[in-house]
Amino acid sequence: MSRRRLRPDEVELWRKVADTTHKLHPDRKVTDLPLPKPKPVKTPRAPVERFALGERVNGPVRMHDLSPGIRDHVAAAPLQMDKKTFGRLKRGKLVPEGKLDLHGMTMDQAHPALTRFILSAQASGKRLVLVVTGKGKHRDDGGPIPTRLGVLRHNVPQWLAQPPLAQAVLQISEAHLKHGGGGAYYVYLRRTR
Questions:
Q1: Tens digit of pLDDT for each residue in 108-167?
Q2: Omega before residue 40 within 30° of 0, cis
Q3: Which candidate among 6, 19, 45, 89 keeps its CA 20 to 30 Å from the CA of 29?
Q4: Angle at CA 64, nearest 5°, toward 60 and 66?
Q5: Which residue from 2, 164, 174, 165 is spatially nearest to 71, judged by alpha carbons?
Q6: Are 70 and 118 in contact (CB under 8 A)?
Q7: How many angstroms separate the CA atoms of 26 and 24, rounded?
Q8: How far apart (Å, rounded) are the C-alpha atoms in residues 169 and 149?
Q9: Of the candidates 79, 73, 60, which has an alpha carbon nearest to the alpha carbon of residue 148?
Q10: pTM, whole model, 2 decimals?
């Protein structure tokens, strides 16, 4: 809603009322009327680049990735564990009680190894384990279907969210740099009851 301007008789009435009042803070300076807000200045739009059919693109070519990255997916997961403990975990202050290195394994080898490791770690009473997947190799051959960087890195969080591991895992988080950074995951396990 826009403000209307005061008519001269309204301004005169205001001054009469203002003259009959006592100041709460006599040290402050008084202005007669509040100044109107300045109007926003419109900035001109940048010109749209046009190109002809068959013309090459200037600048770096962007690859299309329609699905969010695994880092975003893991970070967006709701917090299931204690907030204070999670903060210490993210800062690398907690030391993992076990470690599984999946480097050099295929998906067929890695999935059973991960299942065996997580279930045995939970059975032995461990709470925090480290699963090292590696960051992956760049294998995009330029074909029509893009290949993901780091097959195990993308599949391990999915495997941990599926039965039988989902009942054992409380929280998954990307590891601190001193424990492997983007190529490793902290897996915080539930207590056995």
A1: 999 999 999 999 999 999 999 999 998 887 766 667 776 667 888 889 999 999 999 999
A2: no
A3: 6
A4: 155
A5: 174
A6: no
A7: 6
A8: 25
A9: 73
A10: 0.62
